[in-house]
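call fold(seq) -> tokens
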Amino acid sequence: MNLNCLRCGTKAVHLHHRKLRRHGDHSQANLVPLCFRCHDWAHANPAEAYETGWLVRSFDDPATSDWLNAAPDYTPEAKEKMGGASAPVAEEGRDV
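ret:
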């Protein structure tokens, strides 16, 4: 895989299922490239991961749930490319 982790920007080694794999959603909106450390973090810290969108509850649709607002290199283009919900608008003088 030749992608960067969307959480920290290092080399991604996993395609993380935001809605857990056992729920059967393998859509592009549900798959996020993460490095080993960030993938481990998402599963070790589920409360924060659900709150920030790195995990999605089984009854939610990954394509319509807001996500990636906490990613350091977040861009609306990256979010669109990964099939996420519409991009948030940055406040003046503040990065999203």
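DSSP finds three helices and two strands in the chain.
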